[in-house]
Amino acid sequence: QVQLVESGGGLVQPGGSLRLSCVVSGLSLDYYAIGWFRQAPGKEREGISCISSSDGSTYSSDSVKGRFTVSRDNAKNTVYLQMNSLKPEDPAVYYCATRFIKCPSRYDYDYRGQGTQVTVSS
Prior knowledge:
- The chain is mainly β.
- It has no helices and eleven strands.
- The chain has strands spanning 3-7, 10-12, 18-25, 32-39, 46-51, 58-60, 68-73, 78-83, 92-100, 111-112, 116-120.
- The chain starts with a strand and ends with a strand.
- The model has no long low-confidence stretch (mean pLDDT 96).
């Protein structure tokens, strides 16, 4: 059974940092790319980052580039999203999702986690 479980969300002040984790079971990161997405109330789901299955190359959207970093630990089957310099526009439920070989898109993925809430407030 494939599972993706996110953790690490919470409340942080503007300018603060959080590290989200996505623990994957039931499949290998050697063959599955992992993407991070977020969705705030009343807004479209946004793809923000992805790490490839092959060489670990990464992609970040313009909205988070330079602030968020995606990485993975294949031995732990875990993907991380390090979020720095958090802004008031970053609050959302953050999800990880996976697709065979290719980076998942907002609505095209093989499996998805339940999400973790990130709140940015002073």
